[in-house]
Known about the structure:
The protein has two domains: 2-153, no CATH class; 156-375, 3-Layer(aba) Sandwich (Rossmann fold).
Amino acid sequence: MSTIHWTETHTRHSARWHSENASPLPRRTVVADDRMKANDAYRQACEGTALLWQGDFHNARQLLQAMGRRIDRKPPKSSTSPSKNFHLHRRRSNDRAGVLGMLLVLLDDDYTLTLRRAPNVRQACLQAYGPSKGPMVVSLRELLGVLGAHQWRLKGIDVPTLGARIHPHYGVFAPVRGEYVDLVAHTPLPPATRHSPATSTAFDLGTGTGVLAAVLAHRGINRVVATDISARALVCARENVHRFALTDRIEVSGPGLFPEDRADLVVCNPPWLPARPTGPIEQGVYDPDSTMLHSFLAGLSAHLRPGGEGWLILSDLAEHLGLRTRQQLLDAIQVAQLRVVDKIDTKPRHPRSKDAADPLHIARSAETTSLWRLTA
């Protein structure tokens, strides 16, 4: 646990320092309010000085936006190499997050935010952080993310395949890209599952919100075991399973990847890009060295019933970015002594795939999401 210190009206203050993306404790912290100019705030943040905001909440949001505009004025570096472009983009994004993360707010006991015109953030913080352990300082940028996640949790995300809404929690990857859900909803089930639905079993590895487990249950699979390594995801999946009234069909288990026993169908939608995440939200997208992908392939044969299938849902974005080759994926499948039965492809429908201003637009526009049907 780190403690942050600052001086206000000649009095020394301190509180717990909290950062979901493990940002280090600022070297120096000063108090700032509505008199702070954007240029001064930007300069001090770039120099490593954190600004603990004591003014109006809406003015703080405007200051954060103004600092972001100053960062964006610098033209991004580019390369002819897709992989170098990706790493340059990631570095720029991380640097941007570091500078904007220097604008801080103090949350008092029970997550009270005492700034003028501040919203009530207590419920959102309780859901994201758990019970309060006393005053703590967080970046305003992180707090806004917590508030946004709270709204998603309240309203939910429409999943047409289920005819219902899924409710993601803070730090759990939200199924905003529906193409991978549709692949699981429409790919023909393995013969053993179709012929004996009353005794069929499926595993959903890395379940997140539980959306794919719910899709499998809706398709008639009698028993679904959903796993995840994230404690937040396990809580989120259990709540959604209860909301869908599927607790008699879906068991949420973990933390871990594979459950005990074998299944007729094992579904895995691992993070698609082999890179290091910078926070809990990114863990659904980035996975260093494709650890989850290789763990799934290595353990699949031992967890399949005779005639069973493993469904790997994977984008080829990493291939277009030069982070992984198709041959490397095929070699990993072969090393695991698996056979490719079929591959069903679909094109992404999310807005970024059509955004020409996106630094990774060339790769995103060529992206294909595939469901690989694998057998032992």
